[in-house]
Prior knowledge:
Elements: H1 2-18, E1 27-35, H2 42-54, E2 62-68, E3 70-74, E4 80-83, E5 97-101, E6 105-112
Parallel strand pairs: 1-2
Antiparallel strand pairs: 1-6, 3-4, 3-5
Helix pairs in contact: 1-2
Amino acid sequence: MHxxxxxxxxxxxxxxxxxxxxxxxxxxxxVIGIGKLVVADKNQIEEAFNVIKKxxxxxxxxxxxxTDELLFECKxxxxxFSSQGYEIHCPYCxxxxxxxxxxxxxxxxxxxx
Length: 113
């Protein structure tokens, strides 16, 4: 739960650093992108954020999660592709892959009322 609490706290800090207090009431929700390889429980992040926001200037703010697909690049042919599964080799040439994304948590969108 420590990792999830840290993510929830960073969302609060993001809001406080990027918006003026008079704008807080205009924010409806924050959409958080979470890579498929991230080991974090979305329910625990939401629970932690609900506790944190009670003592903030934006107690009604919601958070929503979007899970990003895996994005790979072939080390041999350079082709990029996304996948629902965990590829081992490039489907185009059979080469080795490198993960381009899906191992991060980030603010994807801020939705205003």
